[in-house]
Amino acid sequence: xxxxxxxxxxxxxxxxxxxxxxxxxxxxxxxxxxxxxxxxxxxxxxxxxxxxxxxxxxxxxxxxxxxxxxxxxxxxxxxxxxxxxxxxxxxxxxxxxxxxxxxxxxxxxxxxxxxxxxxxxxxxxxxxxxxxxxxxxxxxxxxxxxxxxxxxxxxxxxxxxxxxxxxxxxxxxxxxxxxxxxxxxxxxxxxxxxxxxxxxxxxxxxxxxxxxxxxxxxxxxxxxxxxxxxxxxxxxxxxxxxxxxxxxxxxxxxxxx
Length: 257
Description:
The protein is of the alpha+beta class. The chain is 34% helix and 25% strand. α1 packs antiparallel against α2 (18-30), α4 packs across α5 (112-123) and α6 runs antiparallel to α7. The radius of gyration is 20 Å and the shape is elongated. It starts with a helix and ends with a strand. This is SseB family protein. Residues 9-117 form the SseB protein N-terminal domain.
């Protein structure tokens, strides 16, 4: 059983549970998927094998390379992409995802409208404002599913920052809200981190909720104040240099042939 199998089983066991459904789509977006191709990739162009049904056309994707080989009865050309990249790649094309067809408990057809919703959800960015907190307090009572989602999201942000603190903040404008303060963000990583926090809200079923994201250097006096009252989330460090995989940028997904 894989994490996607578990999320799919939970969704199938509770078809009226929106939280279970959102967790499945979050796992789908965050996980690595293996897209079955008709031929080896050429540059940034992919030629996926299509599966035609009465419900429309679907590309064939698997959450393990072994499952793809099992389906294809041996070796076959494929591309390894994240679910979010696939959603961006297929957005607007009327094509769905055939997940693990016939080779796993999570065998499931994700229709094209669900792919479009996922692409739109993942593509929306946060609003940007400039405001500095004046008072900091420990975080209030927040849903456990949000804290768990934040922890999981930040655990995947390897190398993008040192740590983050969750606090209840009052701003110079008089506004009060929960704030996730990110310490020492990597150059240019602010938007990706803010988007990850927004996704934690959305996939926790709390899209209407508010959670500010702010960025501070460790040398800023604010960082010491945050450490005294905030709930700390550690962000993993890079253990070694990692090459950039083709198709890893969600704003520039591969092209379909």
